[in-house]
Amino acid sequence: MKKTLLILCCCLMALASCQKKNAPLFRGDYSFKTSGSVTAKRANATDPTEFNIALNSEIGQLQIAKLNRKNDSLIVVMNYMNGDVVVTHAYCKGQDITLNDFKINSLKVSIEGNINMLCEVNVKAKGTMYDGNTLVLDMTYEGIAGVGNLKYDLYGDDIKMVATRN
Which architecture, in CATH terms, is 23-165? Predict the structure, then answer.
Protein backbone atom coordinates (compact mmCIF):
# COMPACT_ATOMS: atom_id res chain seq x y z
CA MET A 1 0.00 0.00 0.00
CA LYS A 2 2.79 2.42 0.90
CA LYS A 3 4.64 1.62 -2.33
CA THR A 4 1.49 2.23 -4.36
CA LEU A 5 0.89 5.54 -2.61
CA LEU A 6 4.51 6.57 -3.17
CA ILE A 7 4.31 5.69 -6.88
CA LEU A 8 1.02 7.59 -7.21
CA CYS A 9 2.54 10.69 -5.53
CA CYS A 10 5.58 10.56 -7.85
CA CYS A 11 3.33 10.29 -10.91
CA LEU A 12 1.21 13.26 -9.79
CA MET A 13 4.31 15.37 -9.19
CA ALA A 14 5.66 14.47 -12.62
CA LEU A 15 2.36 15.41 -14.26
CA ALA A 16 2.20 18.70 -12.37
CA SER A 17 5.71 19.64 -13.48
CA CYS A 18 4.82 18.93 -17.13
CA GLN A 19 1.96 21.44 -17.14
CA LYS A 20 4.26 24.42 -17.72
CA LYS A 21 5.26 23.57 -21.27
CA ASN A 22 5.16 25.88 -24.25
CA ALA A 23 2.36 28.48 -24.12
CA PRO A 24 1.32 27.97 -20.47
CA LEU A 25 4.95 28.51 -19.42
CA PHE A 26 4.86 32.09 -20.73
CA ARG A 27 1.33 33.16 -19.73
CA GLY A 28 1.13 35.78 -17.04
CA ASP A 29 1.88 39.33 -15.97
CA TYR A 30 5.43 40.68 -15.86
CA SER A 31 7.33 43.85 -15.05
CA PHE A 32 9.99 44.69 -17.61
CA LYS A 33 12.99 46.90 -18.25
CA THR A 34 14.79 47.40 -21.55
CA SER A 35 18.36 48.57 -22.05
CA GLY A 36 20.95 48.69 -24.79
CA SER A 37 22.26 51.01 -27.45
CA VAL A 38 21.74 51.93 -31.09
CA THR A 39 24.03 53.30 -33.76
CA ALA A 40 22.86 56.49 -35.47
CA LYS A 41 24.01 57.52 -38.92
CA ARG A 42 22.95 60.69 -40.66
CA ALA A 43 20.35 59.80 -43.29
CA ASN A 44 21.10 60.76 -46.89
CA ALA A 45 24.39 62.39 -45.93
CA THR A 46 27.74 62.16 -47.63
CA ASP A 47 29.39 62.41 -44.21
CA PRO A 48 29.62 58.80 -42.92
CA THR A 49 29.75 59.88 -39.28
CA GLU A 50 28.20 57.33 -36.96
CA PHE A 51 27.77 57.50 -33.25
CA ASN A 52 26.56 55.18 -30.55
CA ILE A 53 23.57 56.18 -28.42
CA ALA A 54 22.67 54.50 -25.14
CA LEU A 55 18.93 53.95 -24.97
CA ASN A 56 17.02 55.52 -22.13
CA SER A 57 15.95 52.60 -19.94
CA GLU A 58 12.29 51.83 -20.42
CA ILE A 59 10.10 50.14 -17.87
CA GLY A 60 6.56 48.87 -17.95
CA GLN A 61 4.18 45.96 -17.66
CA LEU A 62 4.03 42.97 -19.99
CA GLN A 63 1.08 40.61 -20.33
CA ILE A 64 1.19 37.33 -22.20
CA ALA A 65 -1.96 35.34 -22.88
CA LYS A 66 -2.69 32.24 -24.93
CA LEU A 67 -4.31 33.16 -28.23
CA ASN A 68 -5.21 29.81 -29.73
CA ARG A 69 -6.01 26.60 -27.88
CA LYS A 70 -4.84 24.38 -30.74
CA ASN A 71 -1.27 25.64 -30.97
CA ASP A 72 1.30 27.61 -29.03
CA SER A 73 0.34 31.08 -30.28
CA LEU A 74 0.28 33.94 -27.79
CA ILE A 75 -0.72 37.57 -27.64
CA VAL A 76 1.79 39.93 -26.02
CA VAL A 77 0.82 43.35 -24.65
CA MET A 78 3.61 45.74 -23.60
CA ASN A 79 2.39 48.71 -21.59
CA TYR A 80 5.25 51.24 -21.32
CA MET A 81 5.36 53.69 -18.41
CA ASN A 82 5.43 56.59 -20.90
CA GLY A 83 1.87 55.64 -21.89
CA ASP A 84 2.55 53.71 -25.10
CA VAL A 85 1.00 50.29 -25.60
CA VAL A 86 2.34 47.75 -28.10
CA VAL A 87 0.45 44.58 -29.03
CA THR A 88 1.94 41.71 -31.03
CA HIS A 89 1.62 37.98 -31.46
CA ALA A 90 4.20 35.41 -30.47
CA TYR A 91 4.91 31.73 -30.87
CA CYS A 92 6.71 29.49 -28.46
CA LYS A 93 8.55 26.22 -28.55
CA GLY A 94 9.84 24.75 -25.33
CA GLN A 95 11.62 27.48 -23.34
CA ASP A 96 11.91 29.82 -26.36
CA ILE A 97 9.54 32.51 -27.60
CA THR A 98 9.58 34.47 -30.87
CA LEU A 99 7.57 37.66 -31.18
CA ASN A 100 6.18 38.85 -34.50
CA ASP A 101 7.87 42.05 -35.64
CA PHE A 102 6.32 45.18 -34.13
CA LYS A 103 6.80 48.94 -34.24
CA ILE A 104 7.58 51.43 -31.47
CA ASN A 105 6.53 54.91 -32.56
CA SER A 106 7.79 57.04 -29.69
CA LEU A 107 11.14 55.71 -28.58
CA LYS A 108 13.18 58.57 -27.11
CA VAL A 109 16.96 58.75 -27.23
CA SER A 110 19.33 61.44 -25.98
CA ILE A 111 22.63 62.54 -27.48
CA GLU A 112 25.12 63.90 -24.97
CA GLY A 113 22.27 64.48 -22.53
CA ASN A 114 21.01 67.62 -24.24
CA ILE A 115 19.59 66.62 -27.64
CA ASN A 116 16.45 64.48 -27.45
CA MET A 117 15.19 62.68 -30.52
CA LEU A 118 11.88 60.97 -31.12
CA CYS A 119 12.32 57.69 -32.99
CA GLU A 120 10.22 55.26 -34.93
CA VAL A 121 11.72 51.76 -34.90
CA ASN A 122 10.82 48.31 -36.13
CA VAL A 123 11.57 45.65 -33.55
CA LYS A 124 12.47 41.98 -33.90
CA ALA A 125 12.51 39.99 -30.67
CA LYS A 126 13.08 36.46 -29.48
CA GLY A 127 13.86 35.16 -26.06
CA THR A 128 14.06 32.44 -23.47
CA MET A 129 12.32 31.73 -20.16
CA TYR A 130 14.63 31.12 -17.21
CA ASP A 131 13.52 29.42 -13.98
CA GLY A 132 9.88 29.80 -15.01
CA ASN A 133 9.83 33.44 -13.83
CA THR A 134 12.30 35.49 -15.87
CA LEU A 135 11.90 36.14 -19.58
CA VAL A 136 14.92 37.58 -21.41
CA LEU A 137 14.25 38.97 -24.89
CA ASP A 138 17.04 39.79 -27.34
CA MET A 139 15.81 42.64 -29.52
CA THR A 140 16.91 44.35 -32.72
CA TYR A 141 15.86 47.93 -33.45
CA GLU A 142 15.92 49.42 -36.92
CA GLY A 143 14.36 52.75 -37.81
CA ILE A 144 14.67 56.50 -38.07
CA ALA A 145 15.10 59.39 -35.65
CA GLY A 146 14.87 63.09 -36.09
CA VAL A 147 15.52 66.38 -34.42
CA GLY A 148 14.65 69.52 -36.35
CA ASN A 149 15.59 69.01 -40.00
CA LEU A 150 18.17 66.33 -39.18
CA LYS A 151 17.23 62.71 -39.81
CA TYR A 152 19.20 59.68 -38.65
CA ASP A 153 19.05 55.99 -39.52
CA LEU A 154 19.13 53.86 -36.37
CA TYR A 155 20.23 50.29 -35.86
CA GLY A 156 20.86 48.29 -32.71
CA ASP A 157 21.12 44.58 -32.06
CA ASP A 158 22.30 44.51 -28.45
CA ILE A 159 19.00 45.50 -26.84
CA LYS A 160 17.65 43.36 -24.02
CA MET A 161 14.30 43.28 -22.30
CA VAL A 162 14.27 41.48 -18.98
CA ALA A 163 10.78 40.69 -17.69
CA THR A 164 10.08 39.21 -14.27
CA ARG A 165 6.78 37.52 -13.48
CA ASN A 166 4.70 39.48 -10.97
Answer: Beta Barrel (2.40)
